[in-house]
Structures are given as structure tokens and as C-alpha cells.
Amino acid sequence: MKFLLDNWMLFSVAIASGGMLLWPVLSGAAAAGALPANAVVQLINRQKAVVVDVCEAEEFASGHIVGSKNLPLGQVEEKLASVAKNKTLPLVLVCQSGARAKRAAGIAKKLGFEKVDVLAGGLKAWKEANLPIEKA
What we know:
Elements: H1 2-6, H2 8-30, E1 33-35, H3 37-47, E2 50-53, H4 57-62, E3 64-65, E4 69-70, H5 76-83, E5 91-94, H6 99-110, E6 116-119, H7 122-128, E7 133-134
Parallel strand pairs: 1-6, 2-4, 2-5, 5-6
Antiparallel strand pairs: 3-7
């Protein structure tokens, strides 16, 4: 016990650094799940997941996942319920890199969607996995 009292600052630094190392893991667990491209394909094929691309219309037209629906991030809160009507089906949100999709996932959870996931790495990861895209 004397050792702990004599070295309280050292232990404080150790605990703080451990907390900083764990923060990304803990915050990622609270956020929507980020799925790799192959897991998204399985969700689409097995559970009829709804894929919503939150990119702007120009980005969506330049290339998107086959069968995905376009809903720009700024319109997610107002129109998501009309694009994805069944809140019990898995919802996969996609953008170019995944950052906008994560923000949209938070909105979707507030709107009551039960299973919300984000394509890890965004459309870039989808293309790198050589999965099909279509252009409008």
C-alpha cells in the first residue's frame, strides 16, 4: 500500500493511458456496427437488408452498390422512414468512406431502426473487394 501511495502519479498516468487505449474499442461498440463488404453481401442475400447510400446525388450517380437507394445525409432524418419502411429489416448505410454513414447510423437508431450497420471502409472498400457497382 505504501508503494501505491508513494507512486500515485505513476499509477494515474498508467490508468489514463490504458483508458485512452480502450476508448476506441468502447466507443466503437456503442456505435453502429461497421461490417466488412462480405458480411454486407450476406446480409443482403440472407436477411434482405436495405442498403441506403447517404452520398450526394452526383456521387451516387458516379457509382453505387447494385440495388441501393440514395438518400443524402441531410435528408436522412426526414425521409429515411419512407425509404426503408420496415424497421425490423437490417439497414446498411453506405457512403464513399464510411464517415457520413456513421453519422446517418446514429440518426437511424434514434428513428427506431432495430438493426443498423455501416459498410466498413465505405464504397471504396466495396470496390476493393471487387464487388459489383452500377452507375446511374
